[in-house]
TrEMBL record:
Pfam families: Fer4 (PF00037), PFOR_II (PF17147), POR_N (PF01855)
GO process terms (BP): response to oxidative stress
Keywords for the protein's UniProt record, in alphabetical order: Coiled coil, Iron, Iron-sulfur, Metal-binding, Oxidoreductase
InterPro entries: 4Fe4S_Fe-S-bd (IPR017896), 4Fe4S_Fe_S_CS (IPR017900), PFOR_II (IPR033412), Pyruvate:ferred/Flavod_OxRd (IPR050722), Pyrv_Fd/Flavodoxin_OxRdtase_N (IPR002880), THDP-binding (IPR029061), Transketo_C/PFOR_II (IPR009014)
CDD domains reported in the protein's UniProt record: TPP_PYR_PFOR_IOR-alpha_like
Bias type Polar residues, positions: 459-474
GO terms, molecular function: iron-sulfur cluster binding; metal ion binding; oxidoreductase activity
PANTHER family on file: PYRUVATE-FLAVODOXIN OXIDOREDUCTASE-RELATED
Domain 4Fe-4S ferredoxin-type: 536-565, 665-694
Segments of this protein annotated with the region Disordered: 454-475
Protein name per its UniProtKB record: 4Fe-4S binding protein
Coiled coil listed as a keyword: yes
């Protein structure tokens, strides 16, 4: 069903027409549209082209233009609408500049923060005199984080760019300023920027009047028309006439633009631009305002005065806040409003005339000066006021802070103040929470002026406390984090007590101003305190569970976890929970009995049944039995809620090999993290006709049971490494499922975030982090073993040297040094200081000090690596997120689901950020190896020069094993932020030696807005060309393959790129429980074929490519596409008239282009859009290419086979011919010999006969 905006657009098109014949109606039509759609609609009528760039969140103006281009295809002047897609905001602006240079009327829509980042390009557009109109929606610049809300810091940065800037206060003004800016830009040859607020204009539906054809013709005109040139400067450049939009980049008039200039030409050119072009903008603007008013009756000027004439108190403002200020001024009567429409060039003269009679000016600005200066608008207005006029600076809405009318009224009524006041902010709120109040009191003592920085209107707090989590339970994972002594920025307890609870209870508006807010860091694992609050939970039936592991490995929210323990381990854990020590003497017998009692269910049932069986066969005396049964009751209370499952891989199979070697599986659900996506239950259905997990509506009883089971699981030991290895070795068990049986792997990412239910991104990242954690832990243990061994050797050497000191002449120096230490336990650093003055022939004091210092440094490093300040130890890896949907849920304040360092980067530069971070991270890792190498040289009596040389060690000097022990950095983003926007940096990273593992979360959007190839879907293939990086493409539907390629990438000491397909239920259009199924459909259709390339493998390029893991039997790729709502528009029901031309998609793809044009690709009685079908074909071509690269299927294989067969056949024929020839020769030889023998024999007979006849005696 079309939206209201689409209907309005169609009506508008019908009214004004879409051909060269303009309607003569002098009035536009009235409708309701939001600002983004309205401006895009008008631009699609006026302009020929727009440049759109990828942004997060997506910029709505660009989306609206794309929709209009697809819907209408031509503008008012009959020209086709052109859309240029770019991977970044800077790219979009550059494309728009190129269009304008080539003589096209072009526009570009960007966030103001992105436009500020492209200020150099805006200046280039100014210098090239491009009549370009840029539309910007207000968005805050990043500071200690990102915000998608309105703020004007970026806009003020643009005011010196040389472009003129119009700021619209509502949707109608945004439309009108689009026409005005277009007219001014094309007359002055200076680019213009039209700005509107985000929430109150760009996204706000408002009643508007769209421009009529007559207005467009009279005010703007056709961009290809020739117009008379009035300005003398332009006459010199162009002559008497010029094209309305000059074609600066012309094949007919070739010139060189953008040259490198010497100081004279550059400086004089800048001054000349100001004089002959920039200086005329204000005059042209005023003329255009006047002409627009004559045509429409709507009066605009650089500054608009609203309210009582000659008012003594005037509010100076701009943007959408103007309407609210005007309403307030009407209520207060004594206040007027001066609304600024033109921010650049700043209308100083007009504003001076407006303010010359006022006694107080209230200057509103939506930007915060970070160096405690007055805001920029205040600084520009202040010199315009008379010396009797007081100026008050009021800052509102920074970063999207809510602004209430009552707050504005309070600010307007406030007495004169020297410092700026912030509207709607209570800097030092009164808190009922004692820990929050402690911070407030401390700040008030040290910064007494803080209380005067903000003002509110005495309104009641509209925030209502939310229902707290039913758990009322501090997660075990975070109980050891933080302490009262450590209240720094990284302390979880401090953060949650002062900030987190406000968000949990819906009271975030009660926050005040404090240094922690300025820093903006979120301590680890804050998301574990957050309750997602779903209505359904998976219910486990232990008797039906097979222990396949799919549920706990594919849960996106870490809400389902498992543990495998022997009965002995389980009993010991339960006893440690308290109250069951009397059971210790019977623990081994009870554990043995539990192994014999097959009864999947709650632990309480198994305990009681096993105990009864044990007492039946081995009864205890009454007095001992009473205490033991009391202990059994307590043990059942401790662990009784835990479900225990006897499974084939973990219990029955080991028991058959060895008695009492089986382990009990337990699967529990965290109600605080579960979002009820149903993936676990859906996967369980595929395993059995009677699934062990089913989704059930929450009941108080089931919820309480789930909480109790989870709390028991938190206190249990982890599954052993041996168990995980043996479990993963079974053919029916995925190695990834076995990995995620580890507590450290399964909880590498906590739940409690804001991601959608069933998120494919979360499944992939959770599995990725679980594998990484499991892989890195042995590396850390190996490093710690090396550290411990070296440390012990150093300590032994120190003892030996101190023993020598007992014979030293200067033993008194050592004694005095030791006596001065107050503690009975002396540490090595103190010992080094106290032994510095020893002098003896037997002891070198400096050498002893070196030994002691090294030992102390090693001990300190060991402590940091093993435990650290918060018992987490040194992180085994680190993470950087590029902007995108994953970053949105991973880094939304105040939630942090990670326990490693994480940075959310900026688009386009995130690769460079990661390279800087990893260098610092590698330096930290290198330091411990410097110390170890130096210590080993000391132990081997290495020379002083050798020991000093270790201080120059850099990470490039480390061995492969030492690099393996260094934490890798995971750079996570999507195809757009890492492929399009950061392509150059990505290629550089992949050719470096840096251990950065790039994780590309692919959604397979495929650029279906056109039929051209989309480089984003070929990112992994592009990475293959770098040859020295590990590259793989995987899927959450292939857990074994994903596990293998992640481990291989981590073992590779250099860079790696992994592209993982991650379906999204909300964005792609399917039910949350079907996420894994969608990934399977894409895999089976070869939309996302699996492959890996290991540059260190034996052989040549092609032999290093592995296609292992791909399905042996493929299905139609259309089966995947048709199952997702996002592609529904590409499939239509096949009509009777189309059936004669219908061809199955796979057959259609084999046809040549001419044949394809005469046929219709179909799938299951659905016709497929030919352009879409071609894109599906391009995906299949990638699969074909991979097979060719790997040497499995190539056009050369058959050719080589035919040539080989031909060669073999020819050789065989030659052999046969040779044998025939030899045979004939042998026959001929034999024949000749026989003939010779016969002839000789006959001759002999004839001779004998002749002789006998001639003898007379015979």
């Amino acid at each position: 069903m079309p939206s209201f905006a689409e209907i309005a657009n169609r009506i508008y098109r019908k009214v004004i027409g879409a051909d060269n014949t303009l309607q003569t109606d002098s009035h536009g039509i009235t409708t309701t549209l939001n600002g983004s759609v309205a401006v895009a609609t008008v631009e699609s009528i006026l302009s020929e082209a727009a440049a759109c760039g990828e942004a997060f969140p997506p910029e709505k103006g660009s989306i609206a233009w794309r929709n209009e281009q697809q819907r209408q295809q031509v503008n008012l002047f009959g020209k086709p609408l052109l859309n240029i897609e770019s991977g970044s905001a800077r790219g979009a602006l550059s494309a728009a500049m190129g269009l304008a240079m080539a003589g096209k009327r072009a526009s570009c829509s960007l966030w103001s923060s992105d436009l500020a980042n492209a200020q150099d390009l805006v200046r280039r557009a100014v210098g090239h005199h491009l009549p370009l109109v840029i539309h910007a929606t207000s968005k805050a610049l990043p500071l200690n984080g990102e915000s998608h809300e309105d703020s004007d810091e970026g806009i003020h940065q643009l005011r010196d760019s040389g472009a003129f800037i119009l700021y619209a206060q509502n949707v109608q003004e945004a439309i009108d300023f689009t026409l005005i800016a277009r007219a001014v830009a094309e007359k002055a040859l200076v680019p213009g920027i039209v700005i509107m607020d985000g929430h109150e204009t760009a996204s706000s539906p408002q009643q508007i009047e769209l421009p009529s054809p007559e207005l467009i013709e009279n005010l703007v005109g056709n961009y290809a028309d020739s117009i008379p040139v009035a300005e003398p400067a332009q006459q010199l450049v162009f002559g008497e006439e010029r094209r309305r939009v000059p074609n600066w980049y012309s094949l007919d008039n070739p010139t060189l633009q953008g040259s490198y200039r010497d100081p004279y030409s550059f400086g004089l050119g800048t001054i000349s631009h100001t004089k002959f072009f920039g200086a005329l903008v204000q005059e042209i603007l005023q003329d255009t305002f006047t002409g627009f008013a004559q045509l429409t009756g709507r009066n605009y000027s650089a500054v608009t005065y609203l309210g009582k004439k000659r008012a003594k108190k005037i509010i100076v403002c701009y943007g959408s806040i103007t309407g609210r200020c005007n309403n307030i001024s009407n209520q207060l009567k004594e206040i007027a409003v001066a609304s600024i429409h033109l921010l650049a060039p700043f209308p100083a003269k007009t504003l001076h005339e407006t303010l010359q009679n006022c006694s107080e000016a209230i200057i509103l600005d939506r930007s915060e000066s970070l160096l405690d200066e007055k805001p920029q608008l205040y600084r520009e207005v202040l010199p315009l006021l008379s010396h009797n006029c007081k100026a008050n600076s009021v800052i509102y809405g920074v970063g999207g802070l809510p602004v209430h009318d009552s707050d504005l009224v309070a600010a307007f009524k406030a007495p004169h103040h020297d410092d700026a006041i912030r509207v709607g902010v209570t800097p030092l709120p009164n808190n009922s929470n004692p820990k929050q109040q402690v911070l407030t009191d401390l700040l008030e003592r040290n910064y007494p002026e803080l209380g005067e920085l903000g003002i509110t209107g005495g309104r009641e707090n509209n925030s209502h406390p939310s229902t707290p989590s039913n758990s009322q339970h501090t997660p075990m994972a975070v109980r050891h984090l933080g302490s009262d002594q450590d209240s720094g920025y990284q302390n979880l307890s401090r953060f949650w007590d002062q900030t987190g609870v406000l968000y949990r209870d819906g009271m975030e508006s009660n926050q005040g101003i404090d240094p922690f807010a300025a820093v903006g860091h979120i301590p680890p694992l804050t998301s574990t305190f957050i309750t997602t609050g779903c209505n359904t939970l998976p219910l486990l039936n232990p008797e039906q569970c097979t222990g396949c592991g799919k549920c706990w490995s594919n849960c996106p929210d870490s809400a389902i976890v498992a543990v495998s323990l022997s009965p002995t381990q389980l009993l010991e854990a339960g006893i440690k929970m308290g109250g069951a020590d009397a059971l210790r003497p019977h623990l081994s017998k009870l554990a043995k009995q539990m192994s014999l009692t097959i009864n999947s269910g709650e632990a309480k049932e198994l305990l009681e049944k096993s105990w009864d069986e044990l007492m039946t066969h081995s009864p205890l005396p009454d007095e001992r039995r009473t205490s033991a049964e009391d202990a059994i009751s307590q043990l059942a209370s401790n662990i009784g809620e835990l479900p225990l499952i006897h499974t084939e891989p973990l219990f029955h199979h080991p028991e058959r090999l060895k008695a009492q070697s089986g382990e009990l599986l337990s699967i529990v659900v965290n109600p605080d993290s579960c979002k009820g996506c149903g993936i676990c239950a859906e996967l369980c259905k595929t395993e059995s006709d009677t699934p062990a997990l089913t989704m059930q509506e929450q009941s108080d009883e089931e919820l309480d049971h789930a909480y109790k089971s989870w709390r028991v699981w938190e206190q249990l030991p982890d599954s052993s490494s041996t168990t995980i290895i043996d479990y993963g070795a079974r053919p029916e068990i995925s190695t990834l499922n076995a990995t995620m049986l580890s507590r450290h792997a399964s909880m590498a990412m906590a739940g409690g975030d804001s991601a959608e239910p069933g998120s494919g991104e979360k499944i992939a990242i959770r599995q990725l982090l679980g594998i990484t954690e499991y892989h890195q832990q042995p590396m850390v243990h190996r490093l710690l073993e090396n550290i411990d061994e070296t440390h012990q050797k150093l300590l032994s050497g120190i003892r030996e040297k101190l023993a020598v000191a007992s014979h030293a002449d200067d033993l008194s120096s050592l004694a005095e040094g030791l006596e001065s230490v107050s503690s009975r336990q002396i540490d090595l650093s103190a010992l080094a200081e106290k032994t510095a003055n020893i002098e003896s022939d037997g002891v070198n004091a400096e050498e002893l000090k070196e030994w002691i210092n090294l030992a102390e440094r090693i001990r300190t490093e060991r402590e940091r690596i093993a435990s650290g300040e918060h018992s987490l130890g040194r992180s085994r890896y680190s993470m950087v997120f590029a902007p995108g949907t994953a970053a949105a849920w991973a880094g939304t304040f105040p939630s942090n689901p990670f326990q490693v360092p994480v940075v959310i980067g900026s688009a386009g530069e995130v690769g460079a950020l990661a390279s800087g971070l990893i260098e610092g991270q590698l330096e930290q890792a290198t330091e411990i190896h410097r110390i170890l190498r130096k210590a080993k040289l000391l132990l081997k009596n290495g020379s002083l020069a050798e020991r000093k040389a270790t201080e120059q060690l850099v990470w490039g000097d480390l061995s492969r094993d030492e690099l393996q022990q260094s934490p890798p950095l995971l750079l996570i983003g999507n195809d757009t932020t890492l492929g399009a926007e950061s392509a150059g940096e990505l290629i550089w990273l992949l050719n470096s030696r840096l251990p950065i593992k790039v994780i590309v979360l692919a959604e397979m959007d495929l650029g279906f807005s056109d039929t051209h190839s989309d480089a984003r879907s070929e990112l992994a293939l592009t990475a293959l060309s770098q040859r020295n990086a590990y590259v793989a493409q995987s899927s959450i539907a292939a857990p074994d393959h994903l596990n293998r390629v992640v481990r291989e990438s981590l073992r590779h000491s250099g860079p790696a790129l992994l592209r993982i397909y991650v379906p999204s239920p909300q964005r792609h259009g399917f039910n949350p429980e079907a996420t894994i199924r969608q990934a399977e459909l894409a895999l089976n259709g070869h939309a996302t074929p699996l492959f890996s390339y290991n540059p260190t493998a034996d052989g040549v390029f092609g032999t290093r490519i592995s296609l292992e893991g791909n399905p042996t039997e493929s299905r139609s790729i259309a089966e995947w596409a048709i199952s997702e709502e996002r592609f529904s528009g590409q499939f239509t029901s096949l009509s009777n008239g189309q059936k004669s031309k219908a061809v199955e998609l796979e057959e259609w793809l084999k046809l040549d282009t001419r044949a394809q044009n005469n046929k219709i690709p179909v799938f299951e009685e659905h016709a497929i859009n030919p352009g879409f079908a071609s894109r599906l074909g391009q995906l299949l071509e990638q699969w074909q290419m991979l097979q060719e690269l790997a040497g499995i299927v190539t056009p050369f294989t058959e050719q080589v086979k035919r040539e080989a067969e031909s060669n073999i056949s020819a050789d065989h024929q030659r052999e046969i011919d040779e044998l025939n020839r030899e045979h004939q020769e042998e026959l001929q030889t034999l024949r000749n010999r026989l003939e010779s023998e016969i002839t000789q024999r006959i001759t002999d007979q004839l001779v004998a006969l002749t002789d006998s006849q001639s003898d007379p005696d015979q």
